[in-house]
Amino acid sequence: MRKPLIAGNWKMNTNVDEAISLVRAMVSELDKIAGVEKVLCPPFISLATVKELVKNTSIQLGAQNMHFEDRGAYTGEISPLMLVNLCQFVILGHSERRQYFAETDDVINKKVKKVIEFGLNPILCVGESLEDNESGRTEQIIARQVKAGLSGIKPAGQMVVAYEPVWAIGSGRAATGKQANSTISLIRSTIAGFWDNNTAQAVRILYGGSVTSSNIAEFIAQPEIDGALVGGASLKANEFVGIVSQTASLKSTR
Ligand code: 13P
């Protein structure tokens, strides 16, 4: 059985002091919740500080991006060598990276390979735009993004995929549980075809896009959805704790 996972993607929010306050406001509550993997993804500059604050707890950390080279003349970038002792997960291919920083499937694939090489867990984001959705191209876009992201990579059960329809991100217009479940089921069968069914059954696939403590139950109740990648609601301690605790009561593998 797949262990549910809830990750909070703080995006470009919080300075170091604010990150400390946010973690302090939720660390003990979160730590107590069993049966769900809890992952905080603060901005790079706060990772080391947050690592100290969650030391000896059940909370794990993730980075929001990573360069695919180990080191070198890439001003402003963060390499796997810098992350390997700081976090367990790395979000890759987020639609905001694809849209605002021109990340292509090819670049994202190089990053996924590196994350796996370094023993970290990739959270590969895929999702269709509103235009793709309205013109009935969702399946095609998602299958392309999944196959391109995994290209040349040996079956890896530690892979996490996040289905984040672009139109649902930050819009308050979440997908329905049924919609998300059906696309996630398609992602799983794409992985099964690309790798094999056993690996596809081990890969956790999350939903992301306007998840809150008021709608998480609808997603978690779906059989194919293994958790959530939460943006805005992860910046509020009560909301995030609420999302994780509902996930634990509905889907815990304790
Ligand atoms: P929101 O939860 O703010 O819609 O963001 C979702 C997201 O992009 C998480 O990576």
What's a quick, concise take on this entry?
This protein is α/β, with parallel strands linked by helices and 254 residues long.
Question: Descriptors for this entry?
Answer:
single chain; 254 residues; alpha/beta; TIM Barrel; 11 helices; 8 strands; globular; binds 1,3-dihydroxyacetonephosphate
Write the layout of secondary structure elements.
Layout: E1 5-9, H1 16-32, E2 37-41, H2 44-53, E3 59-63, H3 80-83, E4 89-92, H4 95-100, H5 105-117, E5 121-126, H6 130-134, H7 138-150, E6 160-163, H8 177-194, H9 197-202, E7 204-208, H10 216-220, E8 227-230, H11 237-251
Bound molecules: 1,3-dihydroxyacetonephosphate.
The site of 1,3-dihydroxyacetonephosphate has 14 residues, from strand 8.
Structure description:
With 254 residues, this protein is an alpha/beta fold. 44% of the residues lie in helices and 15% in strands. Strand 2 (37-41), helix 2 and strand 3 (59-63) form a beta-alpha-beta unit. It has helices at 16-32, 44-53, 80-83, 95-100, 105-117, 130-134, 138-150, 177-194, 197-202, 216-220, 237-251; strands at 5-9, 37-41, 59-63, 89-92, 121-126, 160-163, 204-208, 227-230. It is built from 11 helices and 8 strands. It has an 8-stranded parallel barrel with strand order 1-2-3-4-5-6-7-8, surrounded by 6 helices. The chain has one domain: Alpha-Beta Barrel (TIM Barrel), CATH 3.20.20. It is globular and about 45 Å long. 1,3-dihydroxyacetonephosphate is lined by residues 9, 94, 164, 169-170, 208-211, 229-233. The site of 1,3-dihydroxyacetonephosphate has 14 residues, from strand 8.
